[in-house]
Amino acid sequence: MLHIVRNLFKTALLSSLSLLLPLISYADITDKAEVKQFITHMVNKHQFDQAELTQVFEQISIQDNILRLIDKPYEGKPWYIYRKNFLDHCRVQRGVDFWQANEVDLQRAEQDYGVPAPYIVAILGVETYYGSNQGSYRAAEAISTIAFGYPRRADYFRKELEQFLLLAREQQINPLDVYGSYAGAIGQPQFMPSSYRHYAVDFTGSGNIDLSGNNADAIGSVANYFKVHGWRAGEPIATKAQVASNASYQQLDIKKRRAQYPLTTLAQHGVQPDTAIDTTPEKANVIKLDGEHAPEYWLGFNNFYVITRYNTSNLYAMAVHQLAEKLAEQKQGTTPPGPTC
């Protein structure tokens, strides 16, 4: 295995030097003590070659634009603004097209993992517009920038950098040729490297996992991620709630994302479903979102919490939920088609 690692990084070095060095001047982050410590860690724990790994980091620089983006994530916007970017007509129409083109794989994923097709499609729609926008940042540089330039998230991203280098070795790919989001998320479902290694599946049985170019692998991997994190087939996700004027739900610890309160307890605190739900889940949590003119109240059940395991923001999970509903309505023909996208 070690000779594969060495050949991999020699190839990475030669190709990157020949293509990139004439165009880009790299600040040398290998002078940073924490980078040296990280390289030593990878050598000692995973038997990477120190000189070759150092050469890779010599081609990586701290990117100020990434630091600005990680400091002000889009999920910081109010819901009524956030939702507009994910619930537009064209995203719905493109999602239906993707669904129809990959219906066999989506049906198989739903059967194998219990996750409904519209929610798998909605994840891909929110993350990468169904694979059409998978990110323009070099993943190694994006993750390294946050790992060594943003102390508040350094621990997490150093672990992800470790996972990324292991993934590159396992996949026998050039780590400097992998592109993703400004946070280093990869492929159609935008898996962080640890998620890629732990939850991505070879849904085609090809012997290789490709989350960037293989729709089936992306579909199966999203479904597997949800199942592993506790998705319950047939249970509801979220429903609008009525909140009494004298509601005392603020006394509850609703900041925790997990669905934790019986509906009877929520009713005692002035919160109940706006409409009847098909099944009776054991527990729910209160979700308050910033509407354009007034707050929106929702009940989030276990499966809503599972979506937040993909992204911890309630805004993100609600966008996925509502996009999934719109996708299902459009595909079933219950809403009229809009203009051609």
Radius of gyration: 22 Å
Strand order, main sheet: write it out: 4-3-6-5
Order of helices and strands: HHHHHHHHEHHEHHEHEEEHH
Helix content: 40-55%
Number of strands: 6
Please, what is the CATH homologous superfamily of the domain at 2-61 and 137-185? Bacterial muramidase
Shape: globular
* Proportion of beta-strand residues: 5-15%
Low-confidence stretches: 1-26
Q: Structural class, from helix and strand content?
A: alpha+beta
Number of helices: 15
End-to-end separation in angstroms reads 48 Å
CATH architect. name of the domain at 2-61 and 137-185: Orthogonal Bundle
CATH level-1 class of the domain at 2-61 and 137-185 = Mainly Alpha
CATH topology of the domain at 2-61 and 137-185: Helicase, Ruva Protein, domain 3
Sheet with the most strands, sense and barrel status? 4 strands, antiparallel
Whole-number mean pLDDT: 90
List keywords for this structure.
single chain; 341 residues; alpha+beta; Helicase, Ruva Protein, domain 3; 4-stranded antiparallel β-sheet; 15 helices; 6 strands; 50% helix; globular; disordered N terminus
Report on this model:
With 341 residues, the chain is of the alpha+beta class. It has a domain at 2-61 and 137-185: Bacterial muramidase (Helicase, Ruva Protein, domain 3, Orthogonal Bundle), CATH 1.10.8. It is 50% helix and 7% strand. It has helices at residues 2-20, 33-46, 50-57, 64-71, 79-82, 89-101, 103-113, 117-128, 139-149, 154-171, 193-199, 215-228, 263-268, 302-308, 314-332; strands spanning 137-138, 179-180, 238-243, 271-273, 285-290, 295-300. The strands form two sheets. The chain has a four-stranded antiparallel β-sheet. A two-stranded antiparallel sheet has the order 1-2. Helix 6 (89-101) packs across helix 15 and helix 14 crosses helix 15 (314-332).
